[in-house]
Amino acid sequence: MEERPLFEVGKVYSRSRDIHDVYGGGRQSGISTPKDQPLIFLFTGGSGEQYGYQDGWDADGVFLYCGEGQRGDMEFTRGNRAIRDHAAEGKDLLLFQSLGKGQGVRYLGNFACAGTVHRPGADREGRQRRLIVFQLVPQEDLAGPETAGAPPRSLDALRVAAYRAATPSSAATSGAAKRSYYERSQAVRQYVLARAAGVCESCNQPAPFKRSDGSPYLEPHHIRRVSDGGPDHPRWVAAICPNCHREVHFGAAGTVKNEALGVRLGEVEGEPR
Fold first, then answer.
1. What pLDDT, in 10s, does the model give residues 138-174?
2. DSSP states of 88-103
């Protein structure tokens, strides 16, 4: 399981050859959900404007992505539901910009859904309807350090906060959604470390050393992500020692070790809800 990105930010790819021929998924829709892959492909471009779509970056560094559905009010079904629930389902959101017919798609990066808002818009016939707009944040913006100085909380309280992190908020502004999501993502990390109670969830050995604050040193590992960055769901994150973490990513038995972690987390957390 060597840690490497599937795509390089800024590079142009063939949607057919480099994406769907390799990973599957619908070749025409803007939201493509390949079967049996922890990936959701999102495509943005000018062609959606005829259906009332208008994607793009806002002043808070959040990418506003309009959901799917050409007529009537948009609902949280199919692709829209997949985006909203991607963290609970352990799936990455990979965003591409369509450059025009025959010109390929440019990879914009791995994103997380920070929140959703409803906005008025018109469909292709000009009738007014309600649009779903997803507030997407680049994963690298969310991979910050743990919150320092936070008051200690019980394991149950941490678990409640961690599961809440998997549900996008309905903040009034994308900036507020981004801040809220960052704060909630820290709860996932805090809960997973507390759940392990100082013992590696892979090898069952005590943490190899303590941090400067006296807490046992373990590392959160996202078992269904290509790399370890950004918020996730407790069902898909384990707290493991540095040695196991490196072995999972670079060892000959890394895939087997990672699959065993998945089974263990399923027993501990159950299926996402």
1. 887 655 444 434 455 688 888 887 887 667 777 667 7
2. TTT-EEEEEEE-STTS
Domain boundary among 140, 158, 175: 140
The pTM (predicted TM-score) of the whole model is 0.75
Report the alpha-carbon distance of residue 196 to residue 216 in Å, rounded.
10
- Show the DSSP H helices in 85-228 as ranges: 139-142, 155-164, 174-196
Crossing angle of the two packed helices 254-269 and 242-250, in degrees rounded to 10: 120
How many domains does the chain divide into? 2
* Residue 258 and residue 153 share a domain: yes
Contact 94, 30 (CB under 8 A): no
Domain that holds residue 118: 12-140
Q: Same domain for 16 and 135? A: yes
* Alpha carbon separation from 66 to 42, 49, 106 (Å, rounded): 10, 10, 18
